[in-house]
Amino acid sequence: MLIVQNVTKNFGTFNALNNINLEFRNGVYGLLAPNGAGKTTLIKMLTTLLFPTSGSIIYNGKDIIKLDEEYREILGFLPQEFGYYKNYSPTAYLLYLAALKGIERQTAKTRVQELLKLVALENVADKKMKKFSGGMIQRVGIAQAMLNDPKILILDEPTAGLDPKERVRFRNLLTDLARERIVILSTHIVSDVESIANEIIMIKDQQILYQDTISRICEKLAGQVYETEVKYEEAAAFRKKYFSLSEKQESGMMYIRFLSEEPAQPEWRAVRPNLEDVFLHTYQDEVMLQG
Ligand SMILES: Nc1ncnc2c1ncn2[C@@H]1O[C@H](COP(=O)(O)OP(=O)(O)O)[C@@H](O)[C@H]1O
Ligand SMILES: [Mg+2]
Asked: Per the record's keyword annotation, is Cell inner membrane included, yes or no (predicted)?
């Protein structure tokens, strides 16, 4: 079990994270927040690349900074900016990393083969990576994070740059990897985590807003999400009055999904809130700024 206890991180006078408390058991955790919220900062502390300004991170009762090498041995990490050698093949690259990690050559060979099969790269195992797609590179990145069969696997924005098909493939792969370990992945894209995460963590204003299951998080908006049709010309006025979550235009009408705390009008259909609704509602200011 991994516990984040009262962790604050400042960069000089800038407060990036304020008094964070989290608990991780085996399962998939989706760290979901817009850019700049502090996901990478938190992940760097979880991987001992940064130290908290105050507070501590405890793994099975011991501070991860004191555990040091012992902790890094059970950790697998895919950084947001993943550096690889274009002229290497996946096999050569993974064997090289395995050697750096002190994995014995014969064990490494078997492990690399298994992993390349797992991430479906066995057909290009000996091809240079320079012609690989973003999704293929990402799978090499996941394979390197899995070299030591980590008990804690941390992936920072692993789906950035993937096309929709690659995203689906990534989600399936992750479900396979998630057995009997802690998997933490960060993203600013709701659909990347809503089908695979056991729990979602949302950061807002430097603090943890939620760490909970998707259904419990969605309950926060219960009874406030509706759909209705308005005439195209009336859409702008409607949007001024209610917070629009999504819109679809069809034969002169606008189908609007929106949020209202007022009592429902007869023509509104109450719908079950989803994670995207909560995300848009939570980060309305930030998300609008990012366009
Ligand atoms: N080394 C640093 N020095 C100063 N500010 C930083 C540093 N790293 C991150 N920040 C700031 O901390 C905030 C959180 O950044 P980050 O953790 O990268 O967010 P995310 O990964 O969610 O996009 C941002 O405002 C960023 O500019
Ligand atoms: Mg980041």
From this structure: no
